[in-house]
Q: What sequence folds into this?
C-alpha cells in the first residue's frame, strides 16, 4: 500500500506570494491532518479534515486555509506569505479521526 | 507551562543501553502518541496509547492516566535508534498537541 505523499517536496517563495501544498492520503483513509514544524515552535497543529469537512483548526491566522476533496486528497493554502511561514509542513492521514496517523515526508517551504 | 513536557531534552547513550524517555501532560486526553523523527524530517508513528502498555520489537510504551505520564523505553539500543522522539496528546476532538521532543544519540 502506498504511503502518504506530499507535493511539492521543496518550495521557495517570496514574501507576499501565496502557496498551495498537496497531500494524498493512504488509500482508504478519510482523515487528513496538517502540521507546521519550525525550529522555534516545534510541531503545531494546523487543521484536521474528515469526509471533506474541517473538524478542527489550530491557532493560526486566517491566511492559512485548507480543503479536502471527495477522494480524500487535501490541499492547504497560505496567502500573503511571511518570512515566519518558512517551515516544514507535514500532513498525516488516518482511517478515521481517532485512529493512528501516518505521516507524509513533508513539504519544506522557504519564504525569502 | 507547556501542556506536554518531555524529559530529557537531550540524551546520549552507548549502544546496548536501556533508554527511557518521559512525557508528562497537564490535561485530560483521549490518546497519547509517540513519534520518531529522523534527520531529514520524516515522522514515523511508533505507538498510540490510551491505557496500559504496548510493545513493538525493542520499543515499549506505557501510560499512567491517573498520573498523566507516559514513558517510552528502548531496550538494547542501537545507533539506528538515534532520532528525535516526540510525545503528542489528543484531547477529545482537538488536534494533536506536541512536546518539544527528545534528541537521542546512541554511540557505537
A:
Amino acid at each position: 500500500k502506498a504511503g502518504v505523499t506530499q507535493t511539492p517536496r521543496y518550495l521557495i517563495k517570496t514574501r507576499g506570494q501565496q502557496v498551495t501544498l498537496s497531500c494524498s492520503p493512504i488509500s482508504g483513509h478519510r482523515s487528513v491532518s496538517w502540521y507546521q514544524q519550525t525550529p522555534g515552535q516545534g510541531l503545531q497543529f494546523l487543521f484536521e479534515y474528515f469526509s471533506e469537512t474541517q473538524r478542527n483548526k489550530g491557532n493560526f491566522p486566517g491566511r492559512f486555509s485548507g480543503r479536502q476533496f471527495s477522494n480524500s486528497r487535501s490541499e492547504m493554502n497560505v496567502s500573503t506569505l511571511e518570512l515566519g511561514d518558512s517551515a516544514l509542513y507535514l500532513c498525516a492521514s488516518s482511517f478515521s479521526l481517532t485512529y493512528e496517523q501516518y505521516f507524509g515526508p513533508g513539504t519544506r517551504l522557504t519564504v525569502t | 507551562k507547556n501542556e506536554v513536557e518531555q524529559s530529557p531534552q537531550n540524551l546520549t547513550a552507548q549502544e546496548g543501553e536501556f533508554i527511557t524517555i518521559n512525557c508528562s501532560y497537564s490535561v485530560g486526553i483521549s490518546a497519547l502518541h509517540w513519534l520518531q523523527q529522523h534527520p531529514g524530517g520524516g515522522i514515523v508513528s511508533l505507538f498510540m496509547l490510551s491505557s496500559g502498555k504496548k510493545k513493538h520489537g525493542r520499543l515499549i510504551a506505557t501510560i499512567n492516566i491517573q498520573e498523566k505520564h507516559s514513558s517510552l523505553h528502548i531496550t538494547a539500543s542501537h545507533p539506528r535508534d538515534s532520532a528525535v522522539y516526540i510525545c503528542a496528546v489528543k484531547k477529545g476532538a482537538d488536534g494533536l498537541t506536541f512536546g518539544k521532543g527528545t534528541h537521542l544519540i546512541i554511540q557505537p
The radius of gyration of chain B is 13 Å. Chain B touches chain A through 22 residues (CB under 8 Å). Chain B has a mean pLDDT of 94. The first strand of chain B starts at residue 4 and ends at 7.
